[in-house]
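Protein in question filed below.

…
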Amino acid sequence: MKKFIAMFMCVALMVCVSVSAQDIYKTAANVPMVQLNNGVLMPQFGLGTFMQPSDAICKQSCLTALKAGYRHIDTAHAYNDERGVGEAVKESGIPREEIWITSKLWPTEYGEGKTLKAIDEMLARLQTDYIDLLYVHQPVGDFVGAWKDVEKAVAMGKVRALGISNFDANDEVFNKIMSESTVKPAVLQIECHPYAQRLAMREKVKPYGIHITCWFPLGGAMSNGALLKDPTIMKIAESHGKTAAQVILRWHIQEGFSVIPGATNPDYIEENIRIFDFELTDGEMAQIGSLNKEERFFNATLEQVENMVWNAKLSD
């Protein structure tokens, strides 16, 4: 009997191991989780808060999203809306551990001995004891010094996972952060969508197990709605009774990306998350895959980004 029980437990364990984290763990709205290279589970879909006009509006956007089932909110010091995120999380009544908060450090906060102070200030703005995912926002300035401090923050329990944002600028910045880091980046956040599928960058991060999160997943304001008006995407959307935006976001999920569409309109916030009740066929995925032109909508040079960085005004 003991031998039978032992065999049963062994088989059960093998079954559990063979099932992915994405299959087992899902949020309240059936959003799958991805397992990062440090073992931490992150909701694959969230709300981006870039270009939220104020903390008050950001707070309402986040509350709408959390009510709709979102459990991942992506903010940044440079967005000047972290306080709105923190207030929404606090007022939502949802346990903190059920909400994934992502934020980003700005280059003016980079530097060993300087970045830890900036993290404490970020925690105060967000009204939380820890950040789930913390990025260095731009590959400008002393990002190596910043990385040494964010590694310390992980050891201190103030941060759960580390990421690099926009480190697709060139090989030099990517290789430098990889060679200088002890705790390797778990996530890379870059512009990515059906017109810029970033095939080369995806191959570049694969050996490190770095997960990709996509900004401008719908093209952003700079695209003038190009993706949403694409005939191929519109035809697929019609066949599923879905919107073009929902099809694009579904494509991201099935490609294995995490995606953080931004919105302030409650209807759009609720529409965007309604993508877990249908699937694109292999043929439809191939059709969208064929749209790739590696055509980005944000095309600032690293020099232009540097000028933007040092001229930006951040809230305290």
